Amino acid sequence: MGIHKYFQSLSDLEGIYRCPGVFKYQEHSVASHSFKVATIVQFLATVESADGQEVDWKTLYEKAINHDYSELFTGDIKTPVKYALPKLRELFSQVEGSMTHEYLDKEFPSQFRKVYEERFKEGKDQSLEGRILAVADKIDLLYEAFGEIQKGNPESLFFQIYKEALSSILQFRDLASVRYFIHVILKEMISEEISSHTRIRSITKALLQSKESETARKK
Amino acid sequence: MGIHKYFQSLSDLEGIYRCPGVFKYQEHSVASHSFKVATIVQFLATVESADGQEVDWKTLYEKAINHDYSELFTGDIKTPVKYALPKLRELFSQVEGSMTHEYLDKEFPSQFRKVYEERFKEGKDQSLEGRILAVADKIDLLYEAFGEIQKGNPESLFFQIYKEALSSILQFRDLASVRYFIHVILKEMISEEISSHTRIRSITKALLQSKESETARKK
Amino acid sequence: MGIHKYFQSLSDLEGIYRCPGVFKYQEHSVASHSFKVATIVQFLATVESADGQEVDWKTLYEKAINHDYSELFTGDIKTPVKYALPKLRELFSQVEGSMTHEYLDKEFPSQFRKVYEERFKEGKDQSLEGRILAVADKIDLLYEAFGEIQKGNPESLFFQIYKEALSSILQFRDLASVRYFIHVILKEMISEEISSHTRIRSITKALLQSKESETARKK
Amino acid sequence: MGIHKYFQSLSDLEGIYRCPGVFKYQEHSVASHSFKVATIVQFLATVESADGQEVDWKTLYEKAINHDYSELFTGDIKTPVKYALPKLRELFSQVEGSMTHEYLDKEFPSQFRKVYEERFKEGKDQSLEGRILAVADKIDLLYEAFGEIQKGNPESLFFQIYKEALSSILQFRDLASVRYFIHVILKEMISEEISSHTRIRSITKALLQSKESETARKK
Amino acid sequence: MGIHKYFQSLSDLEGIYRCPGVFKYQEHSVASHSFKVATIVQFLATVESADGQEVDWKTLYEKAINHDYSELFTGDIKTPVKYALPKLRELFSQVEGSMTHEYLDKEFPSQFRKVYEERFKEGKDQSLEGRILAVADKIDLLYEAFGEIQKGNPESLFFQIYKEALSSILQFRDLASVRYFIHVILKEMISEEISSHTRIRSITKALLQSKESETARKK
Amino acid sequence: MGIHKYFQSLSDLEGIYRCPGVFKYQEHSVASHSFKVATIVQFLATVESADGQEVDWKTLYEKAINHDYSELFTGDIKTPVKYALPKLRELFSQVEGSMTHEYLDKEFPSQFRKVYEERFKEGKDQSLEGRILAVADKIDLLYEAFGEIQKGNPESLFFQIYKEALSSILQFRDLASVRYFIHVILKEMISEEISSHTRIRSITKALLQSKESETARKK
To answer: Which residues of E touch B207 (CB under 8 A)?
Structure first.
């Protein structure tokens, strides 16, 4: 009934995997995702700041770190559910809210309750920080889908997720950081060299030939 | 858009793990759980039948095999949620229902739609078969919790689950099979010898001594 | 020494993996396989029944649920062994039989011994139910091989298994359910869209273009 | 060659496990650890702030998020090495530094190089933020060791790590947050109820008795 | 059809796990086991050599490295089977022999066939090297069982395996290396300090007290 | 403080994975790698021997079995580090050396210290056995990279490793065994049939047609 339980619970987020029930080559936990989102917001806000925006960094990082803590109470609902039923999603948010409230009342020492209530609120509001969080959350999802597609995952769901995530990101094109993402990062992503099996043969042949001519020269 | 997708989706149930977000020594998938429940109802109904009850075996097995198929659409919501909020659970049932309906409309050839709609309905009704399913579902949950406790899992949640599951089973004491479970099976379970570290020393010593005296005798 | 041990042993089937010793992207346990076979016989028998056949549903489901329980005693012998040496396979069946017998004598309360001896017998006999089981067992194997091939598994063994499994299924073409499998399900399977890496580029470009023209229109 | 590679590399931190080569019941990746450290510094700094200290929150969170990024280049060296040879550790820090430098030169667009050079520097300096990071890093290590000990890990290394981590934390007793940790959190941790096997019997008996007396009363 | 396939097959031994179908905290592959047996024979033969025995080292190491290669064709049959039915075990040996023969005929270049036929033969003969192999194989099995017991595995099977393995080792007491094992190594094993949960409290208290008195002294 | 700890430590090598921090379809432990290297040197030395070279087999096998034991103290440093900084690698070798020395002093009974000091020394010297070990170590690395490329791993690192490993092997072309590797084994490797998705369709069609014509013939 205190911070010990809170610290201990962080480890449980390492055991909640995103997108359960679809075959994946690589699993991603909610804990890992939160770390990646925090790192992505760091970059996006750096671009915003360079573009002249005033960033509230403390709020930004706290939004990123805490944005999925409530999945501890609910787990990660299946992606198809999320995309098929916006109503359920909203309702889920409400339940998450009330469970978080209950958790704070039961587990948190009273002197920290207020500040954590603020921190555990839904972070994706209309502020600059809320919008950066929304973008970063989708960028990490896009990378998860891209990673599966690149590894040859035949599930068409990952194409859907890729599309849905990119589509959400594009809605924030008024942000300088999103424009940087589209014009620079995304370009790098889709032009990535595709590892092909034939490449191994050419490497092999090239090496063998260079060594052979080297040997010939020595004679 | 057909039975191929349905058959393929069965494999996704192998990737949905029960009780996500709590440390476990052994994971159990929804597919494995369904197999175990089917095997448990087989035994319980055998007892009921010996007790003179009329069992509708076809219905019983179909209830067991299909009872968690809808988790494909929703995932396995976290146990604490299930136990903390009966309202959410109910709501989830509704969502599962409507998603199942939608799935049948979209994926199933029309000639099979009706029979599968029946099969995918909530199975735990007031019929004998529905009650046997309810008991078997809790017996498997009890075994999952028992397995973790026996292996030394320090999470107190498993004691809660054990207690909750046993408590639910006891509500069906009017069934002969539940009485058999309580008076015979549960008794075996709780009297199980506890592997202790000291045992290895006594085995070692006993073996060494028997060999030594054997050697002595030979001289 | 009783049903407790029997219930507990079900969990061990979750730890026996099929086709050991070959690289797989996705593992399948004997427990999961049994669940899938039970679900597949349910469908095949539905087709048979619609075709006018009399199905003994109780027997059918019990055959499916129990058909690999004896692997608990023996493990899953390696697929190449199974296919290379029919004699060994037969012999293995015998050993499985005698071990099952011994297990029943030692572990099962006498009042259930007879009914379980019947249930643990080799299920793939010449009855309609035995033949449906034989087909369903091969359909699940076909899906396992298909899943690996689709994910890019370079082991040629999976092509062999695919071929062998399909070949076995085709021997039951006199069954209406097998004809449905060939003419409808298999067709869906082999015409499945192949996820290609290029697809991600086209999705990306299409989205970007539609957004750009949308932006242009707004000006 | 750009931020795409940087974002993609975050996922590699999900595949570097801490304390390699010792048996663990639960693995922790560098990515998960970074998330947990960020969450722990959030709490510690909240205590410091309540105590009247001026916290540079932006710097604090960036220290936490980035503090192990360089393990991407070097992996997580084995704990015994870390503790046995302080010289090697220092040398490793140097190598990490030069590799990080090289990485920034090669991969990062020039406009972000300077700010990230600052961010990727060793964070555990003598500032309040650097000291909070040092404490949080050890608190998470303490929890990792505690988790293994609690689950029954027989490796004595985890006792060593527990001791070493706690000892390091105690060196920062002048911080209000460390005093809170010692007097409140640590107390909760060591008084945690130990799950014992006997507890399951008492739960079982209590439930059975309450139900029996309930039944008796009804008659 | 050649050495390439042979080299590639070594990796398959990494995917065959010993004792399938029993819950284990730690899995051991046939590849890992072979490495450990090779390392154990190295030690045992060092003792024999010091005792004045003539060791044929080449033969010894080849026996160790190759002794389970044939499991590639057959998998690791379940331990209970091995112990319950000596007849089956013998028969399995025969099958392994004939499959190995067939494999050599089909896969191996003729110039190496004879030497590998010798290497793939059952290694546990009556020679000194064969007996050392038999002992080392059981020592590794003993360590596998000990590791599970020490971690708290409740399966009584591991006590059986421990007992059976130790019993087999003791039959070779005429070997100097086995006497060394019994009088020195086994003694260390069973006197190993048992990690207890209470230890963490005493470490904590001791550290806190030493720090407190240190603080008091400074004043 | 004796051979028991040494035997027990072998199991820790099963938990150190090679190339940490890069996505892999298949993990390889240091224990498995050591087994494979021992098996590969066995073959290479067989070729050398047939070529008329005098092989010191005892030394050869001990070099292979022990060559990575020191990773127990240091873990497997990340491949990019190894390849980027030869200086660090050398320094690491020194540290490994001194840690091994310390380990022998602390853990090993004095009568075995000298022989194990010899065994734990860097094995890749200029002797025939040292050179065979160097080649075998790279051959196994080549197979690891080939395995990932063949399974579709998009990480370009594996092409680098493949190239670097092959390049190292080619430097030993004066060995008859390396020439055999290049002219026979490598040829088999790169001409390996690539499993393609289309193959499954042709198998399916061929089988269906053969069965249909068979059916036609029967009429």
So the answer is: 163, 166-167, 170
CATH 1.10.3210.10 fits B3-218, yes or no: yes
Sequence-distant (≥ 6) Cβ neighbours of residue E176 within 8 angstroms:
E47, E48, E50, E51, E53
Question: CB within 8 A of E82, min separation 6: which ones?
Answer: E89
Q: In this predicted structure, what is the pLDDT of residue D195?
A: 45
Comparing B13 with B159, the larger pLDDT belongs to B13
Contacts of F36 (CB under 8 A, 6+ apart): E10, E11, E31, F140, F143
Q: What string of DSSP letters covers F63-103?
A: HHHHTTTTHHHH----HHHHHH-HHHHHHHHHHHHHHHHHH
Alpha helices (H) in A27-85, listed in sequence order = 30-50, 57-66, 71-74, 79-84
Neighbours of chain E (3+ CB pairs under 8 A): B, C, D, F
C-alpha distances out from residue B185 to B178, C108, E168, Å: 10, 12, 36
Instruction: Find chains touching chain B: ≥3 CB pairs under 8 Å.
Output: A, C, D, E
Q: How far is CA F87 from CA D88, F84, F90, F94, F131, in A?
A: 14, 9, 5, 11, 22
Three-class DSSP category at C106: helix
Q: What is the pLDDT of residue F86?
A: 62
Owner of token pair 């209000």? D176
Residue written as tokens 């192949």? Answer: C194
CB-based contacts of B168: which residues, under 8 Å, 6+ apart? B134, B138
CA distance A79 to chain B (A): 9
Confidence of residue A23 (pLDDT cuts 50, 70, 90): very high
Distance, in Å, from the CA atom of D136 to the CA atom of D180, rounded to the nearest integer, reads 13
E81-114, pLDDT tens digit by residue?
Answer: 555 556 666 666 777 777 888 888 888 999 999 9
pLDDT less than 70: residues of chain C = 1, 75-92, 193-205, 207-208, 211-212, 214-215, 218-219
Chains C and F physically touch (3 or more Cβ atom pairs below 8 Å): yes
CB contact under 8 A, E185 and F2: yes
Give yes or no for B10 touching A (CB within 8 A). no
Contact (CB, 8 A) for E75 and E15: no
Closest approach of F156 to chain A, Cα-based (Å): 7
- Name the token pair of E167: 């019993």
Residue F126: CA count within 13 A, CB half-sphere:
0
What digits encode the pLDDT tens for the residues B124-169?
Answer: 999 999 999 999 999 999 999 999 988 888 888 888 888 889 989 9
The total of other beta-carbon atoms located within 10 Å of residue E21's CB is 25
pLDDT in tens, A61-95: 999 999 999 888 776 665 555 555 566 666 667 77
Which DSSP symbol is given to B123? Answer: -
**What's the rounded mean pLDDT across residues D93-97?**
74
* Section E16-35 average pLDDT: 93
Nearest to D114 by CA among F80, A132, A50: A50
Tell whether A184 is within 8 A of chain D (Cβ).
yes
Assess F166–A contact: CB distance below 8 Å, yes or no. Answer: yes
Nearest CA in chain D to B162: D200
| Chain E interface includes C73 (CB < 8 A) | yes
ipTM for the predicted complex comes to 0.89
Q: From the CA atom positions of chain C, what is the Rg in Å?
A: 22
- Give the chain E residue whose CA is nearest to the CA of F191: E4
**Token representation of residue C142:** 């076909």
The rounded distance, in Å, linking the Cα atoms of C161 and C156 is 9
Strand partners, C17: C29
Nearest CB among A151, A197, A208 relative to F150 is that of: A197
DSSP classification of residue D103 = H
At B122 the pLDDT is 86
Q: Do C77 and E77 touch (CB under 8 A)?
A: yes
Going from N- to C-terminal start, the domains of chain C cover 3-218
Could you give the count of Cα atoms lying within 13 Å of B84 in the half-sphere of its Cβ? 15
